[in-house]
Write a structure and sequence with these properties.
alpha/beta; 5 strands; single chain; five-stranded parallel beta sheet; Rossmann fold
Length: 209
C-alpha cells in the first residue's frame, strides 16, 4: 500500500504524516494534523465511488490502528471515508458527521476511540445506521475503560462492539462488509473469497510435523 492514506489521496498528490509519537501534524501533537491535509477533512475512499462506510476516530493517534480497518476495506473494494471526531473535544464536528451520514450515502459507521470512549455511542444516538465500535487499547487497564464505555450502551441505542485494537479494527471492516454484502452480490463474492483465502492460509500441520 505504500504508507498510510487512501489511494485517492495519493492520486491527488496529498502527503500523509506517518509519525504516531505525539509529534503528529504541523504543530506537533495537533489532533487534526493527520487528516486536515485533505479539505474539508473527510477523506474519500480509494475508488471514485461514493463512500458507503464512514470511519471516525476520537484522536489522530488512533489512525495507525484503524489503518488495519481501511486495509481490509480496500482489499474488498469498499469505498470509505475517514475523519477525526472527538465526542468530547469536537462535539459539533461529530454531530455534523453523523447527522449528514445518510444523505452522504453512508450505510455503516465505524467509530474508534479510547479512554472514556463515547464516540460510538454518540454516533449511534444520532443515526439509525448500524454503528460498529472499536475500543482502542490504552495505559489504563489495557483499554478496558474504552471497551466498557463502548459496549455498555443503554437499551434502544445499540453499538456493535468489536475487540480492542487491531483485531477489532479488522473485524469491524469484515462486519461492515457482511452487512453490505446482504444487498450486494458482487461484494458477497469478494467477501467469500477473502474468507476462503484466510482459511487456505492456515497450515494443517505445524512446521516439521
Amino acid at each position: 500500500m505504500g504508507g498510510i492514506g487512501c489511494r485517492c489521496c495519493r492520486r491527488r498528490g496529498w502527503t500523509w504524516l506517518s509519525r504516531f509519537d505525539g509529534s503528529i501534524g504541523p504543530g506537533g501533537g495537533d489532533e487534526t494534523g493527520l487528516l486536515s491535509i485533505c479539505d474539508p477533512g473527510i477523506l474519500p475512499a480509494m475508488s471514485d465511488q461514493s463512500p458507503v462506510v464512514g470511519i471516525v476516530m476520537g484522536s489522530v493517534s488512533d489512525a495507525q490502528t484503524m489503518r488495519q480497518c481501511t486495509a481490509v476495506l480496500e482489499q474488498l473494494d469498499i469505498p470509505y471515508e475517514l475523519k477525526v471526531c472527538s465526542a468530547h473535544r469536537t462535539p459539533k464536528r461529530a454531530d455534523e458527521f453523523v447527522s449528514t451520514a445518510v444523505e452522504r450515502g453512508l450505510k455503516v459507521i465505524i467509530a474508534a476511540a479510547g479512554m472514556s470512549a463515547h464516540l460510538a455511542g454518540v454516533m449511534a444516538a444520532g443515526t439509525h445506521l448500524p454503528v460498529l465500535g472499536v475500543p482502542m487499547k490504552g495505559e489504563l487497564m489495557g483499554g478496558m475503560d474504552a471497551l466498557l464505555s463502548t459496549c455498555n450502551m443503554p437499551k434502544g441505542i445499540p453499538v456493535g462492539t468489536m475487540s480492542m485494537g487491531s483485531h477489532g479494527a479488522v473485524n469491524a471492516a469484515l462486519f461492515a462488509a457482511s452487512i453490505l454484502a446482504l444487498s450486494d452480490p458482487e461484494l458477497e463474492k469478494r467477501l467469500l473469497a477473502y474468507r476462503q483465502a484466510q482459511t487456505d492460509a492456515v497450515p494443517e500441520y505445524p512446521p516439521g510435523a
